[in-house]
Amino acid sequence: MKEQGWSLVFSTDKPFEAEIIKQMLSSNGIEAVVLNKRDSSYPSIGEAELYVTPEDEPKARKLIEDL
Prior knowledge:
By secondary structure, the chain is α+β, with helices and mostly antiparallel strands. Helix content is 33%, strand content 24%.
C-alpha cells in the first residue's frame, strides 16, 4: 500500500486495537485507514494494518509509541 501514498504505522491481530488507535490519531488531526487482512474463512489468521499519509507518519509513530 506504500506505493499508493500511505505508510504502515501499526499492525495487530486484534482489529479493535487498530480501530482504537485510528480514533486516537484522528483526534490528533491525523487521517488514518485500517486495512483488515483477516481471512474470512479463518478469522484467527491475518492482521489489521493501520496506514497514514507519509507526511503524518513521524507524528503518528510518536503518538503510538507514547501509548
